Amino acid sequence: MEQLFSYGTLRSKEIQMRVFRKLLTGTPDQLNGYKLKSLKIEEEFGMADYVVAIASESLSDVIHGVVFNVTLADLAKVDLFESNAYKRVKVTLNSGISAWVYTEN
After folding, report:
1. What is the CATH number of domain 1-102?
2. pTM for this one?
3. Nearest-angstrom CA–CA distance, 2 and 58
């Protein structure tokens, strides 16, 4: 199994059903040394507001989210779901868990 840290839309049960066709199991966690930045992404019906994780100069900056257990096939689905404004990188969460997270491309 892989670990995926989500701080945004992937925490939504509706989005999980749309992307994975199942609900994910997760636990709260934090990502230190990152902060959220507003991001506009063009969608089918116009521009939508999202956030993206970016590395911070301060280790005291923290993003709260959920770490999910996912398969490699699930990660491939998320890669398709996330726009080209994001890239997937490996990070170490506050709990010590090594997880994938989507950051600014």
Report:
1. 3.10.490.10
2. 0.89
3. 27
